[in-house]
Specification:
It is a single chain. By secondary structure, the chain is mainly beta. It has one domain (2-159): Jelly Rolls (Sandwich), CATH 2.60.120. The protein is built from 1 helix and 11 strands; from the N terminus they run αβββββββββββ. The strands form 3 sheets. A 5-stranded antiparallel β-sheet has the order 1-11-4-8-7, with helices on one face. Strands 3-9-5-6 form a 4-stranded antiparallel β-sheet, with no helix packed on it. Strand 7 (110-112) and strand 8 form a beta hairpin. The longest helix is centred in the N-terminal third of the chain and has 23 residues, at 2-24. The radius of gyration is 16 Å and the shape is globular. The mean pLDDT is 89.
Length: 161
């Protein structure tokens, strides 16, 4: 039991360093950050909040979500409430579903041991309409609280190529 926990933590740490190293080498990354959930449990009250300053309103961007979960995650999807706050005070809220496994139950992300990382493109070739401070808030909207085996949730903006 303890050995499995140590191996899981080591794999997560190694994977985190790899993701950090690879993202730091990419000059097209505008913003990239993860929210980590204690004990791999995402409580509905624990919002993943991403605050960022946008100065470039001309460049096209791709927006992605990143989900790190254990192989034992009991569902093939993840429902989210998404709130976007714009620099002018406008607030938009929406619901979205992230599909994590195909119809055969195979995880769509890449795995190291029993940990899977999945980068999900949600918007492509988007321009930010206003310069200033944006906030993106994600809440897990599954019917289970806490949601087990979700370790990290990330948000990334990358310049379109």
């Amino acid at each position: 039991m303890i050995r499995n926990l140590i191996l899981k933590n080591r794999n997560t740490l190694l994977l985190s360093f790899l993701v950090l190293f690879l993202s730091s080498c990419n000059k097209n990354i505008v913003y990239s950050k993860y929210q980590t959930f204690e004990d791999a449990q995402w409580y509905a009250k624990d919002k993943a909040v991403f605050d960022l300053e946008i100065t470039d309103t001309q460049t096209l961007n791709n927006i992605s979500l990143m989900v790190r979960h254990a192989d034992t995650y009991p569902y093939n999807n993840l429902f989210l409430f998404v709130t976007t706050k714009y620099p002018d005070g406008k607030v938009l809220t929406d619901t979205m579903e992230v599909i994590l496994a195909n119809s055969k139950g195979e995880w769509l992300g890449s795995g190291v041991g029993d940990i899977f990382d999945f980068k999900v493109p949600i918007k492509k070739n988007v321009r930010f309409p206003l310069g200033g401070k944006y906030q993106f808030v994600f809440e897990q909207a599954m019917r289970v609280d806490p949601l087990p085996m979700i370790m990290d949730f990330g948000f990334e903006i990358e310049k379109s190529k």
